[in-house]
Amino acid sequence: MDVTISPSRVRGRARAPPSKSYTHRAILASGYADSAIVHDALWSADTRATARAVTLFGGDVSRSADGTLEISGFDGRPDVPADVIDCDNSGTTMRLVTAAAALADGTSVLTGDESLRSRPQGPLLEAISDLGGEAESTRGNGQAPLVVTGPVEGGTVSIPGDVSSQYITALLMAGAVTDEGIEIDLETELKSAPYVDITIEVLEAFGVEARHTDDGFAVPGGQQYRPADGEYHVPGDFSSISYLLAAGAIAGDGTVTIEGAQPSAQGDTAIVDVVDRMGADVDWDRDAGTINVSAAPLSGIEVSVADTPDLLPTIATLGAVADGDTRIVDAEHVRYKETDRVSAMAEELGSMGVETTEEHDSLTIHGGESTLEGATVDGRADHRIVMALALAGLVADGETTIEGAEHVDVSFPGFFDVLYDLGATVDRND
To answer: PROSITE patterns, from UniProt (predicted)?
Structure first.
């Protein structure tokens, strides 16, 4: 699907979807449990992949008309899947489910789409092997398809922290139901650390203890997943909130009010501070879970995305509108997402007339030297690239057509409907 965005002003109220990160963890945690009810879950292409994996492990996931998920789990020990686990485009699913597969008494096979089959899994495979399981890439390159044989009983592993925090999340979630537990020693500084904090927060809600150690993390074995009252509520998604917040900051005609913005462990809450530092008028009522944002002249700043890689596309678009340079640093790990988001944003914004400087671990957007012009751009089969380019289309001179816009279904299925309801001119071409 192609979507064309015309220059538009936005105002009104919008609600962000539930958190994708929390939903993934809640679905799998419910799978590790005997049963659970998950309220306010994001039902997207990515989270459906995790639900399918839980089903293949012997659980069952059913969704009611109001979006509530009723999950019968596999109670700590997954069955050997009767079919290949297709993780589609979801890196989170593949990492978390790979560790779960290592608990099964037999062999599991995991794969995904072309993009997912290019993403690094090697450190997690090595960790599973160190724990006594067997885990390998069929192509011998550390990438899917993966073949995993268990069961592992726990132990101590050493793993890099600067490739993906999802390796740590996967091992913590699986380690709780091993006999011995798992202790994780980090070989390098942990990137995207707030995502592990999200994991620990979800584990606590399911009655599971995990903790920071001097050298990394640890989770005792022999635990059971039991959420309080058998239920869990998913908070709003700040990665998705970033697009609504940026839309108000660059194209607001009056105030844009964003609902569902309750505080949580999400590192992407940093976007509120980023937009404020750039000069927009922002007010976050944490008790009410609402953010009010109004447009104002923006100025370039320097932002580290070491802990917030998903914010890079949004910040890049803000920088294209701002006066002066916006420098996004500590960005090397952002190259290993659904696409290389550093290069993707440099190239696609470049096709819209934006001057950028790309380095290995940084991206500088020269807003003062740029004039945003409408163009046909490639969404790179990446939901975050699509949404960031749609924001640019709101303030570009002329129409902007985004190819492959259907990929917003990964995390924000109603994104273009929300933009339209805020006043944007949105034309779909299926």
So the answer is: EPSP_SYNTHASE_2
226 among annotated binding-site residues: no
| C-beta neighbour count of 187 within 10 angstroms | 12
Give 292's Cβ-side CA count (13 Å radius).
Answer: 6
What amino acid occupies position 52? R
Q: Mind listing the domains of the chain with CATH numbers?
A: 2-17+236-429 (3.65.10.10), 20-233 (3.65.10.10)
Buried b (16+ CB within 10 A) or exposed e, 197-234: bbbbbbbebbebebeeeeebbbbbeebebebeeeebeb
Residue 307, both tokens: 């802990």
Tell whether residue 35 is among the known ligand binding residues.
no
- Annotated active-site positions, please? 310
Q: Which of 39, 13, 9 is nearest to 290 (CA)?
A: 13
The predicted structure's pLDDT at residue 429: 87
Q: Is cis: bond before 145, omega within 30 of 0?
A: yes
Q: Are 115 and 381 in contact (CB under 8 A)?
A: yes
What tokens appear for 305 in the block?
A: 């995305």
Does the annotation list 91 as a binding residue?
Answer: yes
Report the DSSP pairing between strands 107-111 and 69-72. unpaired
Which uninterrupted H or E stretch holds 85? strand 85-86
77 marked as binding residue:
no
pLDDT, one tens digit per residue, over 161-217 is: 999 999 999 999 999 999 999 999 999 999 999 999 999 999 999 999 999 999 999
